[in-house]
């Protein structure tokens, strides 16, 4: 069955005659009659009661009309949405984050973005229980916030900002009178981290593992505020981005130390290359950068 058949049947119902239906859909009466006969031959049953005035439909015809009423509006709406996407006014932006601390700035950015792009379908999730970047490559996601880019075909990485990773300790900790810490000074510490693989954590990848050092013990916490509470109460130390620590430093809850001569990383927005030029994607990246620059302390945004 073709879409043209459904359109023809709706025109017949709405006008009550084959002649007027033909005028409505810009066909000849013989072409409309041919379409109906073709469909009846395929289905081996009558669709119209031709002797009635106006033309009425058989039970089989009524079934087809119900199908037309369901399918044709959906097709029309989908085509409109595609045209909006092509024109850059609508689309889908399903976001995942690999950085726990990013909730702090991502939610305000999303709320602000919704006001400017009401036609974009927005959704987001954390990437802690699945691999977001392969999901992005497969089209299951549209944007991933990550500090750990990996080469993937069809995936581009747009830098958002650079940040410094710092070690948070209690204000009563023996290291609290220092501005820097070195790997060997952490051998007797309990290191509190997010529940992710060590290789995805800056303090391991860039600081401890190259020095062949591991802490005495480790424990995990899901939320940044939980990590800070544990640190402030002297139950361990943790490594977080400088901007994530700023609020707690101002409250004198913790002290922050640089990791050696400094460990810096870049946070990226990963998107499929085919979507990179979309207006709504570019605007999200731009507005995220602006929001971060205005609200996060200690970050550096490079000119692009």
From TrEMBL:
Subcellular location: Cytoplasm
InterPro entries: LysR_HTH_N (IPR000847), LysR_subst-bd (IPR005119), MetR_PBP2 (IPR037406), WH-like_DNA-bd_sf (IPR036388), WH_DNA-bd_sf (IPR036390)
Membrane-spanning parts: none
Biological process per Gene Ontology, one example term: methionine biosynthetic process
GO molecular function: DNA-binding transcription factor activity; transcription cis-regulatory region binding
Domain HTH lysR-type: 1-58
An annotated GO cellular component: cytoplasm
Major localisation: cytoplasm
Pfam families from the UniProt entry: HTH_1 (PF00126), LysR_substrate (PF03466)
Domain of life (superkingdom): Bacteria
Keyword terms: Activator, Amino-acid biosynthesis, Cytoplasm, DNA-binding, Methionine biosynthesis, Repressor, Transcription, Transcription regulation
Keyword Lyase: no
Stated family: Belongs to the LysR transcriptional regulatory family.
Protein name (database record): HTH-type transcriptional regulator MetR
Species in which this protein is naturally found: Gynuella sunshinyii YC6258
Lineage: Bacteria, Pseudomonadati, Pseudomonadota, Gammaproteobacteria, Oceanospirillales
